[in-house]
Here is the input.
Amino acid sequence: MKEKKIRYGKDFLLIVIGQIVSLFGNAILRFALPLYLLRETGSSALFGIVTACSLLPMIVLSLLGGVLADRVNKRNIMVGLDFLTAAVIAVFYIFKGILPTVPLFTVTLMLLYGISGTYQPAVQASIPALLPKERILSASAIVNQIGSLANFIGPIIGGMLYGVWGIKIILQVSIMCFLLSAVMELFIAIPSQKQRERSSIGETVKNDLRESLHFLKSEKPVFIKVCIVIAGLNLFLSSMITIGIPVIIIDSLSLTDQMLGITQGLLAVGGIIGGLLTALFEKKLSPGKASVFLYLCAGFTCVMGLGMLPQGVPVFQYVVLSCMGMAVMAASTMFSIQMLAVVQTQTPSHLVGKVIACIMTLIMCSQPVGQLMYGLLFEVSDQYIAAVILGAGIISLLIAMYSDRILRQLGEKIYVQ
Here is the structure.
């Protein structure tokens, strides 16, 4: 009876507050750094190349993060990486203007994304360690909401700060956020069972990954098929939004940094709406029918492309781009939360971190390719933006059709006995 009264508990609350602070710092940083690079170089191709390169360490280190999440105290991982992030930003702050812009940005973004890849499996694996299975979906929605809320507030405030004071104030605020988050996380107590080491670290990592891949191939092959679906969306849809929206607003429509911040904030509002709807209709959602959200993503993307047809009014195009981007984020968030909750509830507790890391790595592999592709496409096809976006929408529709039969294998409920 006592457990029912405490819905989530102190430790989960501390994780939530820590995520609010660190993700806010992350949001304004991820808004300002690419914008600064785009403003300095004026090249969407270079923008895509640097963004793609920055994701490579995240892909590799996500695997390491999964192994650490199951073998090392998850709180210590989060605390250490938040302190390390603050240090990386401080070094960048010192050397900005001294070292060449593009190499400095590339290395800094690679470090930040690499840290993020190591950090996220610990956060995701801590949820099933702190909460009973029946609360994992709503808890995952809460964590997702926090990220979306930070991504809503961060770009708007970041756009204002950047427009008035430039990038230095962004870096200062981000450093403070990560330091505060690290201090707060020191007070989290996450249950952990130390596993006995009988081999070297390299051998341990190899064995852990082999165990995770064996689980995916032998016991949950449907998870791999879902990964292929999400990887396809990352390649053709997510990458288009990540690269396309800043390039279109800044270069094609010639609008202000503040307006880009508002659009990035609206994308996060879409994530918030998706998280709220997931929590609200938690008992009615069915992973087996989640392809409906992919159909919605494809439809909204096609409308976005139609809104960018030539000879359109820039303000109208901006509104269509922002609103449809928000709608895509809402639908994709509802899909993503369900898929994550399925993995968290249908994976043995000692494998959760490693399996999530393997899945994250598989689905992220396509993203650098997509970002590089769209960086080049927007560079050479600046007169055919509508065609590029419509192409992304049509391919997303085909992926949604492909996913129908796969997702039915997940069943009607999140938790399977």
About this structure: The chain has one domain: 8-185+204-408. The domain at 8-185+204-408 is CATH 1.20.1250.20 (Growth Hormone; Chain: A;). Residues 1-6 have pLDDT under 50 and may be disordered. Residues 44 and 379 are 6 Å apart (CA to CA).
